[in-house]
Amino acid sequence: MKPVKVGICGLGTVGGGTFNVLQRNAEEIARRAGRAIEVTHIATRAPNPACDVGDSVQVCDDALALASNPDIDIIVELIGGYDMALKIVMEAIANGKHVVTANKALIAVHGNEIFAAAREKGVMVAYEASVAGGIPIIKALREGLAANRVQWVAGIINGTGNFILTEMRDKGRTFDDVLAEAQALGYAEADPTFDVEGIDAAHKLTILASIAFGIPLQFDKAYTEGITKLTTADVNYAEAFGYRIKHLGIARRTEQGVELRVHPTLIPEDRLLANVHGVMNAVMVNGDAVGSTLYYGAGAGAEPTASAVVADIIDVARAVSCDPDTRVPHLAFRSEALSDLPVLPVGEVETAYYLRLHAQDRPGVLARVASILSERGINIESIMQKDVEEQDGLVPIIILTHRVREQRMNDAIAAMEALDEVSSPLMRIRVEQLN
Ligand SMILES: NC(=O)C1=CN([C@@H]2O[C@H](COP(=O)(O)OP(=O)(O)OC[C@H]3O[C@@H](n4cnc5c(N)ncnc54)[C@H](O)[C@@H]3O)[C@@H](O)[C@H]2O)C=CC1
Ligand SMILES: N[C@@H](CC=O)C(=O)O
Ligand code: NA
């Protein structure tokens, strides 16, 4: 069979890793794909010192030109961002080329339009690397778990954020110091606020929810909260109650609709997800037939991510000659069978809560706080008042509650913050048992 010709757009962390893995494992990859996979063109703005591109590859700086080059079969988009990446992908599809991308921002925000264009042209758009880097979670959800009605998906899906939380907790390093290291290691997004404010995780969760529940991509409806407000004190208090704080993406199907939320979360310290450290990611999927399953691996970095990109290239190379109607649908469910199950506003989500407030050390304060909660039907699981003064003579009170709908908790928090003896704002972190 003729070799498959690949054009790589972007030779940065992931592009460089992809080129190197394709070269190093070329023989083994050809044995799996049934034909050789050749990188014939690369478009990049800067050379990558980690790649020896040689003379046989044509290198240019015009990525859009690759998308219309008739000599290329598969365009691998590894530039990132929305604008140029969208142009390249749509141009490639218009020219009948298959596309492989690691760009979760692009898929989460423009995926519906991209997949519609790809269906029209009968081409594939593969995006395994876009969620949880090297973990084959898209494959697992779209194919391995296809028998199941998926109930929920919960995961640590941003390597940079988990690396920061781990280093802060284990080594007492500062947030900014660890973030700078994550950037130097190539883990972080071009704009690292995407990592630390939960936007990157929300992109990935949007994709996971679509393929788990068969709904269109709806990034604009995801609730997103980052890790920048977490303090070492919260990490320590959580541990005193037997919990760890992880930045989770959670998508859950309920009778009313789909919860789609990214936020710091307390989880019991003995859960597997509580023990995922550093740049590692893990995604737990609960299906009605299989129960809970867990997928673990490196969520970022050159070769772990390249592992997913190259697997997609191999899949595309194998399926090129298939009838497009027999291929796995882009969003796992056939496009005409996607459901209109709504994404729920976060006010309708029900979780337990960790609350940390600072109050004057006077008799009756604790009772007033407790009655605000009980008047709203919110049960207290545990309460801890520290006798150390932390903030302007105020002492911390930490409360764990039972499960309650978020809008009711918002009302209780507003009432607590209105008390003269309590400083505002108080800290709230959602708690999940994940069982
Ligand atoms: N770094 C990681 O660990 C992971 C990254 N991703 C995604 O992979 C994509 C690429 O990320 P990185 O490799 O980290 O980025 P990077 O910044 O290291 O590389 C981007 C490359 O694109 C090139 N480029 C940018 N605009 C261009 C243009 N208009 N024409 C030609 N070349 C252009 C740059 O010269 C650079 O070589 C992004 O969508 C990112 O979200 C996904 C999973 C993991
Ligand atoms: N910036 C992302 C890269 C992979 O998707 C992360 O840190 O997880
Ligand atoms: Na993946």
Automatic annotation (TrEMBL):
Residues 354-430 form the ACT domain. CDD domains: ACT_HSDH-Hom. It is an enzyme of class 1 (oxidoreductase). Keywords: Amino-acid biosynthesis, Methionine biosynthesis, NADP, Oxidoreductase, Threonine biosynthesis. InterPro entries: ACT-like_dom_sf, ACT_dom, Asp/hSer_DH_NAD-bd, HDH, HDH_cat, HDH_CS, NAD(P)-bd_dom_sf. Pathway: Amino-acid biosynthesis; L-threonine biosynthesis; L-threonine from L-aspartate: step 3/5; Amino-acid biosynthesis; L-methionine biosynthesis via de novo pathway; L-homoserine from L-aspartate: step 3/3. Its EC number is 1.1.1.3. It catalyses: L-homoserine + NAD(+) = L-aspartate 4-semialdehyde + NADH + H(+). PANTHER family: HOMOSERINE DEHYDROGENASE. Belongs to the homoserine dehydrogenase family. This is Homoserine dehydrogenase. The lineage of its organism: Bacteria, Pseudomonadati, Pseudomonadota, Gammaproteobacteria, Pseudomonadales.
